Amino acid sequence: MQISEDGNQSSNEIAGADHNILNLLDSMDNYLILVDSLSSSLRQGWLELASARYSMGASRVNSSLFDLKSHQLPNQDLDNAGTDTELPRFTLCKWTSSDEAKLEEDELLKNKSDNPPVQHQESEERKAEESGSPVTANNHAEKERFKSLSMFGTLVSPKLRATQSTFETALETLVEMSNLRASLLRAYDQVQKDRKTDE
Amino acid sequence: MANKPQIRTNSSAIMAMIADEDTITGFLLAGVGNVDLRRKTNYLIVDSKTTVKQIEEAFKEFTSREDIAIVLISQYVANMIRFLVDSYNKPIPAILEIPSKDHPYDPAHDSVLSRVKYLFSAESVAGDRR
Known about the structure:
Chain B: It comes from Erythranthe guttata. The complex is a heterodimer of chains A (199) and B (130). With 199 residues, chain A is mainly alpha-helical. Chain A contains 5 helices and 2 strands, in the order αββαααα. A two-stranded antiparallel ribbon of chain A has the order 1-2. In chain A, α1 (2-56) runs antiparallel to α5 and α2 packs antiparallel against α3. The longest helix of chain A has 55 residues, at 2-56. Helix content of chain B is 38%, strand content 16%. The longest helix of chain B has 13 residues, at 52-64.
């Protein structure tokens, strides 16, 4: 009886280890697919940027024009890791204004002494309220996009706008890649743990 | 449990970049540029005049900042500081190696994928058998 129980236990362990290895290989495959997608977006972006530079002139599209005045970025990554999970989760918060971001920061600082899950819920409720006005959000996003483009002047080539759009897509891919990387590392740790247990 | 790196529970964070001018220009257009009150940027433009030491310092600074969630680094730049990138093992900020215009992405050099490759390599299996 005991031998069959031990046999069942070891076959369950082997099935668990195989499952972890499959998870790892799946994560790796998905990661490589995303890298390929990112490469393709970046190639398109570089080509569009080169076209914009050709039409506007190299002196109008270069790093010396970057705005070095203190400013908060409009695109932020949210790290949603709660206290009850080990896997970090990245979410892109696109084109929030510096005022909104400051307001969110102030709220979070105010609520820091309170329960963390409540603070996360509050920020989600605010986002739900904000998403009720899509026209305002779109107008706001357009304003922020214009601000980013205005680094290179008021009248810019349509190619530069296309570059902005392409790199926004690349940014979304990057956030997905970050999430996948986190699950890939987790799967890797699981497989390593299984191997050490087997030894 | 004590050896596991702590995961920060910040609600908002930014992305840092160590790449060539065109890549950084593109991402700045997409809205990830940040300059703090001390005029410190969240990016480093790598060109022919950038030294390895500058790249190392930027990498160490970005990976130690609490407000950075993702560090983007061109793979050819990561190869210059490969030892530093491979020895990095915290979950946040996440280090993402990306291709550049002149250097396509090579999965064999990626710090995460090379670890997985080693796990399944013949040497690693042979080591277990011993």
